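Running low. Any example?
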Amino acid sequence: MQGVVDGAIDRVIDWIVAQANRLFRGNREDNRNQQNPQQDAQVTRGLEALSSQERPFLDSGKITEQEAQQVATNVKSQHPVFRELRVVDGGDSWDYQYDAGERHRGRKNTAISQTPESGRVVIQRASKKIKNKEEGDRREKEELDELKLNNPDAKVQKERYLRDKNGKIVKDPLTGEGRRIDIVVIENDDVKEVIEVTSETADKAEQIAKEKRIRKKGGTFIRDKETRELIDISKKSTKIKRRK
């Protein structure tokens, strides 16, 4: 009889333990899914900061991996809500992989608009590997090689931002983007040529208009990549070089 009683007690204890475990799991799941408006707001501000801090680097939507890394490092230090924030290869874009807790994990990537919980927000970013870019890189290299050959005593440098007299990248008041000059030729601490390389058919009207607005705001300097000195190019117009 005692064995029967002990067995019954054991079953009751097992049932109580099982119910307690089920309740604990339920509470833990509820806590994990519980809304946290303060954290949601912090994540949203962090994602918005990614967009705003990469704008100075954008030139017609382009951003390099190194520039994206710089943005990610700055935003992570300013927004500790992110446990992890790093740049990953998205195939046709540079994406920001982030982790801000159970409900906030994902990627901030190309032109997709959803809620912060899904890890995707609206952002425009250039294609990293597309045919047009490959052709553009080829044209720039050909122009660069030709300029070096024709200017043996000069420094031929590519991708120089328009800056103000204090060295700060100047943003276009209309688009919020900076302007990166394709190639500059520097000789005797002066700029001989400012060049934009493009295809034979590309319409550069929008690009030219953006550069004019930036120059009007004081963006008339470039930084020498070697000396880090600023050079005034206010008297040099950008030449459009068209190549096949």
Remarks:
- The mean pLDDT is 77.
- DSSP finds five helices and nine strands in the chain.
